[in-house]
Structures are given as C-alpha cells and as structure tokens.
Task: structure prediction
Amino acid sequence: MRTILLFSMGVVFLAACGPASRSGGEQATAAAAADLTGHPGYKLYQMYCIACHGGTQEPGQRLAPPAFMVQRHYKNAFPEDEFKQRIIAWINNPDKEKSIMPGAVRNFNLMPPLQLSQADRQQIADYFWLATFAEPAWAAAHRQQKQQRRKQMLDSLPNP
Ligand code: HEC
Result:
C-alpha cells in the first residue's frame, strides 16, 4: 500500500513537471488519474472504451462523446448505484430507449454492443464512477470562451 502510494506520488510529481502540464487544472487531473492507474477498471477502460471515448480527436472527427461528458451526464442523472447499473447494462446492450444522451445518438449513431463479462463491466463501471477524466483541450477552450462571453455580457449590463 505504502509502495503504491509512493509510486503514485512520484507519478504526480513527474506529471506536474512534465511538458504536458500547462495549467493547474491539468495537474489536478493528472494527480487524480494517477491514483487510479492500479484500479482494474482503468486497464479495461483503456482496452475497451478509450478508442472511442478518449476525446482526443477534434470535434467533427470524434467517434463518440468524450468520457468526461458521459460521466457528467450520468452523474447528474443518477446516484452511484444506478449510475453503475446503467453502465453495466449499457456496455453489452446499448438501447436507444435507455439512452440519456439523445443528441449523442443522433450525432454518432447508437454505440455498438460489446461482449464483456459481468465482472469486467462491474470494474469498468466502478472506474467510470471514480475517474477524473481529462477534459480535452478543445472542450476546455470551448468552456473558457463561453465563460468569457458570459462575463462580457454581465459586464455590459448597466449597474442598478
Ligand atoms: C466503437 C466505439 C465505442 C466504443 C468502443 C465504446 N463506445 Fe460508448 N458510445 C459510443 C457512441 C458512438 C456513443 C454515443 C451514442 C450513444 O449514446 O449510443 C456512446 C455512448 C456511451 C454512453 C452513453 C449512453 C447514453 O446514450 O446514455 C455510455 C455510458 C458509454 N458509451 C459507455 C461506454 C463504455 C463504458 C465503453 C467501454 C466498455 C464504451 N462506451 C465503448 C461508442 C463507443
């Protein structure tokens, strides 16, 4: 346990000094993600989900909504138990009727079903709940633009 802790602290330290970290947000993400690299669901997610949900492609070239968006929708909609049950059921049997992201189904078509064991799906669902998924650069830029516009709009309102 102690070794794992020290190891992940090392990873965080390296991540914090690496060229990949430009902002505090990215450092925080690296720190949170580093703690979960030993989680069985982490490997499974890399194997079975990240190719489509990694969010690294630019909008227009993406295959699916990035994981952090899926996680946000599901966390807003469901408590932990149902969050996990929904993910477990979804992986092997995506169902338009059960989708809570109709826009994503329209844009990308329904996710193709995967054939994973109950145990693997459970691990992935646990990981999906715990993970701090990196917000892709394009999404962060988009969010900042929106915040900027909102601020400009508020600033332009007359003072009461
Ligand atoms: C071949 C590409 C692909 C892979 C691999 C993939 N997905 Fe998806 N996924 C999609 C697409 C496309 C959507 C958006 C359309 C939809 O919701 O069905 C999606 C949507 C989802 C949703 C949102 C469902 C909704 O509409 O409410 C969840 C949850 C999800 N995926 C979980 C996973 C998990 C977990 C894995 C890995 C085990 C995974 N996906 C692997 C393509 C993929």
